[in-house]
Specification:
alpha+beta, eleven-stranded mixed β-sheet, seven-stranded antiparallel β-sheet, 22 helices, EC 3.1.4.11
Length: 720
Amino acid sequence: MKIEIENSMNIGLLVKVKSRTWKKQRYFKLQDDYMTIWYKSKKAGNTHSTFSVSDLEAIRDGHQSEVLLSIADEFPADRCFTLVFRGRRGNLDLVAESADEAQSWINGMRTLIENLENMGEREKLDQWIGDWFRKADKNNDGRMNFKEVQDLLKMMNVDMNEHHAHRLFTMADKSQSGMLEDDEFVLFYKMLTQREDVLRVFQAYSVDGQKLLQSDLEDFLREEQLDEIDMQPHAKQLIERYEPSDTAKLLNAMTFDGFLMYLGSAEGSIFNPQWRGVFQDMSQPLCHYFISSSHNTYLMEDQLRGQSSVEGYIRALSRGCRCVEVDCWDGANGEPIVYHGHTFTSKILFKDVVNALENYAFKVSEYPVILSIENHCSVEQQKVMAQHLNHILGDKLLKSTLEGKAPVELPSPEDLKGKILLKAKKIGGLEENFNGTVEDPQSGEVSDEDEVRSTQRLSKELSDCVVYCKSVQFSNFKHSRIHSKFYEVASFTESKARKHLREAGTEFVHHNSRQLTRVYPSGFRTDSSNFNPQEMWNAGCQIVALNFQTAGEGMDLNDGLFGQNGSCGYVLKPSFMREVGSRFDPETPHCIYILKVISGQQLPKVNVKEDSIVDPLVRVEIHGVPMDQAKQETRYIENNGFNPVWYDTLRFTIHTPELAMVRFVVEDYDKTSKNDFVGQYTLPLSCVQQGYRHIHLFSKDGTRIPPSSLFVHVRITELE
């Protein structure tokens, strides 16, 4: 397999494309580690760049980016492909010299990504060790001298005195050559990464300090991890899965290496794997779910001058987003365009957005997508919009009520699998379609959603595409309770939603148990920043639209909430938010959340200065109902980002665990200025596994930064 990949990805001359006018030739090559892609300019000079296969999310073949579509007349689709990076990093659009060469690169890259995804914990560790060896081996002679080791320690965030470093180096140098070769470096790395914190736990349950018998492991799982599944087969399965020693396996035992592998795996992580797949009831009305939602999805940057791009839709949908937004305006040649009106943001065609929906709507989730339309088009171009929706989406576009009956409540995500719903203004209502009171006008007038109550001409063709999500202006909760229909959707800016929450919180929750509500960022957020979505979820608002292009706390919470239930974009609201008239008491404490932050592992450097070492601290934040909002911090550890140890205990009283989110933030302490962000991880409290757990950190961009992690002990004590 390796030889096949190597042959297909030998050094090749590819054209890197940024626009119709920016096309440059670059040499690309797969490095010997089968993990690194090297590339450099065709021009003379030694400067080159690299990226890791682990940075890649997918390979798209053909003209599947705006850049490659713009040069489709110059380069055929079978020579083009796009490298899609994780997080918010820009894509890399490439053109090969022939269709065969393009296919070789596409197949080779996809195989490498697949291999990486299928790697076991042991292989990942070996890969990681190999990466460090190559970084440290400056002169590429396959060996490391002591000076290279010292440089490596700085790269790895380790502040170690020269005497101790030299002692480890000498112990690892079995050949006494003054150099470390492959196996010797592995030994050096293991001594460097010795986990005293985990060893302490291991030895507490091991009779001889060398191994855990199956019965010892069962005791650990029962007493510490509070596992509630059938213990004997579970312990046996863990030994089979994580124990590297065949001898230990024959004894039904687990060595320290196996124990460490288990604790570093998905099963040993803080997120309960039981809640990774779709596990919730998906047959309730749409208004009973929180829905992952994007604001001004077409924007890649800010709200005033940023680039508009179809890529915004592809990225949001690929992250499980289920409600995307378009602002439509009249364009040239009778073609509607999408951009942030009355600003300098660039423009894209409405039909290109619809094509992206057709291609990407259901790649990561089969549950329905809501297309929220802000319509500024003339009746003529609205007709064109309706044509594009019908022609491109075909049966995926929901055009009528399910089973053709007059409905009394919203259908469920299960009922609407594979369907795209339009949220927009509509002439008349659903009932009139069934009792025959609507005539057949070509267009009609509807009141605007904003404060002015102006009217807008609406084409019947576009109006007919709206079924279960009719955009309406909100008056007040009393009016809604008496007059509003279940298929009507009100939209609020964050400030208006906060006002309703402040003045009529309970009524807001009840309103959201009957129909959908959309909340979007204030127009003052021209930098595309986000509000905290938690306060809107606290009110039961389903469509809390965020700027997906902007990293930070808002998107961390969104990713955290929707990381459960198969990342399908729908999360069932707590029962007290679904049942009209139900009450819940946010004043009564429900449980105590006790978290012992034990240690950190291989935290990334945040300061580019070579001599700079991280001074890490951990902040744990609870986001939830107002009484649960809390933050606590550990001490900071001076000059140790490699293996800091805290053993600090933090306690939180939780009143409404069903709505609580836990966010772990690691920062580099600075006494003279704001702390630097190092990494974070966010998850719902309901998904937390108790016991000794690793927390695998994410970058600011929302991508994993292996093997950076925290090691913690968790206890959640119910209060009577």
